[in-house]
Please model this.
Amino acid sequence: MRAARFHEVGGPEVLRIEDVDRPTPGAGEVLVRVAASAYNAADNGMRGGFLPIPVVLPHVPGYDVSGTVEQVGDGVTDPRLGDAVIGFLPMERDGGAAEFVVAPAESLVAAPSGIPLADGAALPSVALTAWQAVFDEGRLTAGQRLLVVGAGGVVGKYAVRLAERAGIEVVATASPRSADAVRAAGADVVVDHTTEDLLTAVDGQVDVLLNLAPLEPERFASLVALVRDGGTVVSTTAFIATPGDEDRGVRAVTVFVQPDRQRLTELVRLVDTGELDVEVTRRIPLADLPALHAEGAAGRIAGKVIVLADGDGSAAPSA
Model:
């Protein structure tokens, strides 16, 4: 089978498309015929060697995946042979940037039925990050108030949409380029961070500040004043310490997304009922993944890109 692998950490040039043996599932595992994997910034970090997630070399990136169950290992009753699935794979194991991948059965759920199967690869880790930030770490409930800093990205729009449908008031920052999309996701107030000072633009305090942007530490710390006493600052930016305020009881939490089959199943349900959209900006063939990593290293990727295991990248296969 074809797979994208790197044998050493380094720049995008260490990522190569190779012919490798098809893996075999063990007990509790399944073999997935990959429809698509998704590119994530963490893939660049692991390939570059500056993200502290241990991997065995050579390594196949792509921890978000969609596809069809080709073979099941001992003890697996769900999913079944032939099932269309998506999953958030353990990041330390080989990922889905290949024609086949072995995955723990517990990491997979039934794919959304109303979108192309390949597009389902764009959902798992980003939507789980948003859910865990808003509800599991932020502990938000209906009637409370959320501020999302950097809402224009994929995680931000999921966070806005999930909070809005839960009855949470949402204030969000976005650039003019993404402001309309953030409003469409359900933000009550959108602040243009390119022209407005957030400290004066936000009317009153919020229960949770969710930061998704690469802020300077001093600037990030200043925004804690927008959080009420006893509130929470949640951040997904692992390389910046999340500030809090012990004197006012403001918690500080950094989110590291975790697999969660129950949550992912619920997210798929929301996609199938039309309450949640899956955004795919671009589809590329597996052969173009090294070039995509070069774009990512240069900071030129916007939106969600999926990597087709087969095909020319012009369109996603049908479910």
